[in-house]
Amino acid sequence: MIRKMGITWQLRMRMAEKNMFQTSDLVPLLAERGIHLSREQVFRLVTQTPQRLSMDTLAALCDILDCSPNDLIDINVVNAKIRKAGGGDASALPRVRRSTIRRPDLT
């Protein structure tokens, strides 16, 4: 079995601790640090867990919020385990049922 890892994105909580409640508050602060993102991109960054995040953006967020990456990202194990392909217990596999396709007689 493979353990599936997940993350919890804590940016909104860290912003609230610094009395920053508008996502647009981050736009000029990021720009001061050389990170130029649109308001929409910053909104998505705050409200959704990012799948990809540049190290420069992460460093800028840590500087703005006076925190470490560990304060922004909580790593956790997702309860659902994924079964590896191949091998393993054959009884756990679904049974194959053969079928016959019969075509209607066209005469």
From TrEMBL:
One of its GO terms (molecular function) is DNA binding. SUPFAM superfamilies: lambda repressor-like DNA-binding domains (SSF47413). PROSITE patterns: HTH_CROC1 (PS50943). InterPro entries: Cro/C1-type_HTH, Lambda_DNA-bd_dom_sf. Residues 87-107 are annotated as: Disordered. Residues 54-72 form the HTH cro/C1-type domain. This is Helix-turn-helix domain-containing protein. It comes from Streptomyces sp. R11.
